[in-house]
TrEMBL record:
Residues 16-26 have a biased composition (Pro residues). Its EC number is 3.1.3.12. Removes the phosphate from trehalose 6-phosphate to produce free trehalose. The lineage of its organism: Bacteria, Bacillati, Actinomycetota, Actinomycetes, Kitasatosporales. It catalyses: alpha,alpha-trehalose 6-phosphate + H2O = alpha,alpha-trehalose + phosphate. This is Trehalose 6-phosphate phosphatase. Pathway: Glycan biosynthesis; trehalose biosynthesis. One of its GO terms (molecular function) is trehalose-phosphatase activity. The keyword Metal-binding applies. One of its GO terms (biological process) is trehalose biosynthetic process. The keyword Hydrolase applies. Belongs to the trehalose phosphatase family.
Length: 299
């Protein structure tokens, strides 16, 4: 295949000209190398699907401050017209990802789909329409009981509750004195609270989200592959919530559909890196990969 090993970073050209895109990296697995080859040789069949936080947007202390990497939208807009479909698959409400990502009204992204709340919601760039299920009644019940449960668990300073449009609620520990200890202490009581109201706990990077069952990023990705008729897939993620999407790509591969698993490298989620074909250095590396793909497809 025509890919080249690369060291991520600046790629010099003649003085005054824009930096050349980095050469494509080489996946560490044979399945990954075959998938990358399929994607670059037949881009019109490829679905490129990416997680938002930690993949397209750098991790920050306050989730409300998370924004797409400055190179993410330009790279996606360069890539999208060359492939079958581009999707953002996120635990965020779709409209939050669209706003914080700056995905609306972008030339080149007319066919972007944002699959929010782990695929329960969907926003289409072409129409601007948002589809969402009715809120699960357990979310309001959990929200009402949450202060008492947090108090019983010790009310640690720095714990922050993210309201997710009435469709889920997330308890963040990143700003606690000891984020991992706070996460560990809250996991059992929040799992119990969720279960009493028909919800599940979705653990993530210093966050425990209480949300309705029945949907995950793997189900969402497989539905999108079916809908778009994609013949190859690239999926990039950084967190535990991306594991079902990784499993979906592995399933597609066993059915003969080439799939490339990309981990937006983090020290917090080693399991994802261990299962990936390619680990890139966070959103910087994801953006570099997207830009390199777009450049290669333009050749
Ligand atoms: O599926 P994703 O797009 O990756 O969303 C997963 C969760 O991401 C957000 O939390 C994470 O990012 C925050 C901002 O960088 C960070 O402060 C937090 O520690 C991370 O867990 C978001 O706040 C959650 O609602 C998403 O479910």
């Amino acid at each position: 295949m025509g890919t080249q090993e690369t060291h991520h970073g600046t790629h010099s050209t003649a003085p005054g000209s824009p930096p050349a895109p980095a050469p494509l990296p080489v996946p560490v697995t044979a399945a990954g190398r075959a998938a990358l080859d399929a994607i670059v040789t037949r881009p019109s069949a490829a679905l490129v699907a990416l997680d938002f936080d930690g993949t397209l947007a750098p991790i920050v202390e306050n989730p409300e401050d998370a924004r797409a990497h400055p190179g993410a939208v330009p790279a996606l807009a360069a890539l999208a017209p060359r492939v079958a479909a581009v999707a953002v698959v996120t635990g965020r409400p779709a409209e939050v990802a669209v706003r914080n990502g700056g995905f609306a009204g972008v030339e080149g992204l007319a066919h972007l789909a944002v699959l929010g709340h782990y695929g329960a919601e969907r926003w289409d760039a072409r129409t601007g329409a948002l589809t969402a299920p009715a809120p699960h009644p357990g979310v309001a019940a959990v929200r009402a009981e949450l202060p008492a449960v947090l108090a019983a668990a010790g009310d640690r300073p720095g714990i922050w509750i993210e309201e997710k449009g009435g469709r889920a609620v997330a308890v963040h520990t990143r700003r606690a004195d000891d984020p991992q200890a706070a996460f560990d202490a809250l996991r059992a009581p929040l799992t119990d609270l969720a279960a009493r109201h028909g919800l599940i706990v979705e653990p993530g990077r210093m966050v425990l989200e209480l949300r309705p069952p029945g949907m995950d990023k793997g189900v969402a990705l497989l539905e999108h592959v079916r809908e778009t008729g994609a013949g190859s897939v690239l999926y990039a993620g950084d967190d535990l919530g991306d594991l079902p999407a990784f499993a979906a790509v592995e399933k597609l591969r066993s059915d003969g559909v080439p799939g490339l698993l990309v981990c937006s490298g983090s020290t917090e989620v080693g399991e994802l890196a261990a299962r990936a074909d390619l680990v890139v250095p966070g959103p910087d590396g994801v953006v570099e990969l997207l830009a390199s793909l777009a450049a290669r497809m333009a050749d």
